[in-house]
């Protein structure tokens, strides 16, 4: 029997693509999830909650490689701590971690910053937890996924006025292209922090909203309001962008067309 690769968050947007791509490469896959289901198509599911650490030890048992995709708006540092403690004890040989572009250059210092960008600070803390765990690792930072940008503009478009973060640009990338890179990294040797992965084009946030409204035949005024605080200022200065690593191929326009066709 082959040693399974553990994918935390294997039920999520990114993780599902990672699982499918690992399966296509012939890997056995184990998924850690809070909602386990019966094994199917070479994928087994183990119950676990990385917020509490429950199930982490069982999830990493007999595993050499982990792709850590589990994440949420809050507490990714805590999740990383629980996973890495279990991985270190189990002698895991490689953890691949997905972080976010700008994690290292977004100052989250004030209460306003923490309220709006606590997610980014937790990703940075998680990066450090992974790096200092003693487990060989590879960390890659990605820009926002098209899928997330789509969710955001779709939610905003429900209001009569669309409030866009003024001055902020986005470089969205297809989650599946990030998954492709994660799988390549997982099947290779640990490399520490590797080059960012970003989408092919950079757009003012308001333009993403505008193209969504146009594509869905809606008319809404867009009000660009700059968010307060140092972290938002860093984003306006481009901390969340990686123009030198615009390696994704799928553009926002292509994603939008595809997504709205289903
Ligand atoms: N979305 C973006 O634009 C973006 C950009 C750069 C990096 N990232 C990073 O990429 C990763 C995946 O993002 P995504 O957009 O694919 O997320 P997602 O669709 O929201 O999926 C989140 C996944 O995390 C799992 N999860 C959440 N809380 C958990 C917990 N307490 N214990 C165990 N599993 C938990 C969920 O599994 P269950 O519900 O099955 O338990 C789910 O599979 C995250 O680390 C995120 O920070 C995302």
Automatic annotation (TrEMBL):
<feature type="domain" description="NAD(P)-binding">
    <location>
        <begin position="9"/>
        <end position="153"/>
    </location>
</feature>
<protein>
    <submittedName>
        <fullName>Uncharacterized conserved protein YbjT, contains NAD(P)-binding and DUF2867 domains</fullName>
    </submittedName>
</protein>
<dbReference type="Pfam" id="PF13460">
    <property type="entry name" value="NAD_binding_10"/>
</dbReference>
<dbReference type="InterPro" id="IPR051604">
    <property type="entry name" value="Ergot_Alk_Oxidoreductase"/>
</dbReference>
<dbReference type="InterPro" id="IPR036291">
    <property type="entry name" value="NAD(P)-bd_dom_sf"/>
</dbReference>
<dbReference type="InterPro" id="IPR016040">
    <property type="entry name" value="NAD(P)-bd_dom"/>
</dbReference>
């Amino acid at each position: 029997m082959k040693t399974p690769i553990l994918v935390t968050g294997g039920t999520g947007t990114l993780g599902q693509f990672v699982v499918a791509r690992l399966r296509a490469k012939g890997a056995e896959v184990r998924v850690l999830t809070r909602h386990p289901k019966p094994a199917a198509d070479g994928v087994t599911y183990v119950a676990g909650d990385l917020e509490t650490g429950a199930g982490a030890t069982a999830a990493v048992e007999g595993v050499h490689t982990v792709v850590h995709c589990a994440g949420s708006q809050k507490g990714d540092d805590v999740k990383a701590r629980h996973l890495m403690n279990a991985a270190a004890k189990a002698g895991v040989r490689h953890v691949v971690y997905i972080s976010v572009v700008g994690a290292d250059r977004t100052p989250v210092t004030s209460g306003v910053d923490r309220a709006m960008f606590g997610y980014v600070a937790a990703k940075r803390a998680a990066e450090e937890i992974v790096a200092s765990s003693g487990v060989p690792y590879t960390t890659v930072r990605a820009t926002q996924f098209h899928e997330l940008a789509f969710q955001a503009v779709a939610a905003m478009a429900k209001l009569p006025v669309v409030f866009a973060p003024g001055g902020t640009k986005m470089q969205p990338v297809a989650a599946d292209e990030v998954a492709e890179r994660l799988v390549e990294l997982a099947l290779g040797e640990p490399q520490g922090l590797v080059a960012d992965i970003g989408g092919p084009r950079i757009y003012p946030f308001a333009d993403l909203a505008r193209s969504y409204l146009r594509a869905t035949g809606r008319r809404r005024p867009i009000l660009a309001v700059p968010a307060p605080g140092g972290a938002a200022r860093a984003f306006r200065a481009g901390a969340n962008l990686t123009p030198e690593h615009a390696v994704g191929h799928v553009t926002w326009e292509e994603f939008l067309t595809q997504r709205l066709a289903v």
